[in-house]
Amino acid sequence: MLANDNIEVYENEFWDNGNVNIMVYSFTLGGRTISDPNYDPYPEQIFIHDNTYRGGGTAPRHRLLMAWYEEAQVNTPNIVWGGLVREGHSGENIICLGLGAEVSFLNLKGGHDPSDVSYDPAPHSCDLPRLAPVELDFPGDD
Q1: In terms of pLDDT, which residue wins out, 139 or 131?
Q2: Could you tell me which of 121, 100, 104, 124 has the C-alpha nearest to residue 21?
Q3: For 32-91, how does the pLDDT look when each residue is reduced to its tens digit (9 = 90+)?
Q4: Regarding predicted confidence, which is higher, 135 or 141?
Q5: 114-129: per-residue pLDDT in tens?
Q6: What's the pLDDT score for residue 142?
Q7: What is the pLDDT of residue 47?
Q8: Distance CA 84, CA 41 (A)
Q9: Where are the domains of the chain?
Q10: Which residues, other chains included, contact 127 with Cβ-Cβ below 8 Å and sequence gap of 6+?
């Protein structure tokens, strides 16, 4: 999820994604710049819960994940956050994994140093309000 806000990911099955099962990151992760002052490059209010994961993370392709993988020598955790936060804001409730969720997690902390990361999902043990379902009505789908 690149620079999205108000996203809920739940009741999905993720498996054997070579790079990473879920990655949430800012457009500016890795040094990219933006020239549009109206563009918000930071993800916020991402609620990831009640998903099933199997395999994956064996062949990271994102440049910063590749540097981390070379250092850590383990498969990519199921959920990866780039770790960048809008200046002047806290990291609270940017990503919520549900209360007491047991999921493998990696915070790249901005990706500046592949050895300075966090695997602790506890700061993200929170709930956000459930979002209304998106319903699409296609002609002929009766």
Answers
A1: 131
A2: 104
A3: 999 999 999 999 999 999 999 999 999 999 999 999 999 999 999 999 999 999 989 888
A4: 135
A5: 999 999 999 999 999 9
A6: 66
A7: 98
A8: 10
A9: 5-32+41-124
A10: 47, 49, 96, 98, 99
* Secondary structure of residue 88 in the 3-state scheme: coil
Tokens of 20: 């990473």
Contact by Cβ (8 Å): 13, 69: no
Residue 139 CA to residue 17 CA, distance in Å, equals 33
Ramachandran bin of 7, using left for φ above 0, alpha for ψ from -120 to 50, beta for the remaining angles:
beta
Q: Using only the alpha carbons of the chain, give its radius of gyration.
A: 16
Count CB neighbours of 4 within 10 A: 13
3-state secondary structure 13-67: EEECCCCCCEEEECCCCCCCCCCCCCCCCCCEEEEEECCEEECCCCCCCCHHHHH
d(CA 106, CA 80): 5
- Residue tagged 């990291």 (tokens): 91
Full strand arrangement of the beta sheet holding 105-107: 22-24, 79-81, 105-107
Token pair 């990655």 in the structure block, residue? 23
* Residue pointed to by tokens 């563009």: 39
